Amino acid sequence: MKKLLFSGIILASILLFAASCQYKFVVEPEPLPPGDTVSFSLDVVPIWNDNGNCVSCHTSGNQRPDLTPDNAFSEIMNMGLVNTADPAASEIYEHPHPDSDGHSWKKYTNAQAAVVLQWIEQGAKDN
After folding, report:
1. What is the mean pLDDT of residues 73-85?
2. pLDDT at 1
3. What whole-number distance in Å separates Cα of residue 56 and Cα of residue 63?
4. Is the pLDDT of residue 97 over 90?
5. Quick check: 22 and 103 in contact, CB under 8 A?
6. Average pLDDT, stretch 4-15?
7. CB-based contact 115:38 (threshold 8 Å)
8. Distance from CA of residue 92 to its chain's centroid?
9. How many CA atoms within 13 Å lie on the side-chain side of 29?
10. What DSSP element (H or E) covers 114?
11. Is the Cα torsion angle 93, 98, 99, 100 positive or negative in sign?
């Protein structure tokens, strides 16, 4: 009887523990089709700002470039982080790229990297 009671308590504990876990499922954004225009403010800036991604470090007075929505475009352009002649060589693309060793804290996902690259390939406009 004691074994059955003990087994019941263990099983109930495991079930309560498993039920208390919270999972956050992130839906990976798809890169835009090749003909679509990538918007800096609607497609690129959210990559840096959603869930404290890059702006957890890259804010005014902290770590350059300042990637907050109001300052991001002028910062990355003034620092020369975009190369429209060779988009894949742009530091804003390659430094946090998922396959890069350049950035150790946070990196783009593959889809985010594709959006940033598309934006640069389209002329890196402040749109």
Report:
1. 96
2. 63
3. 9
4. no
5. no
6. 65
7. yes
8. 12
9. 18
10. helix 110-121
11. positive
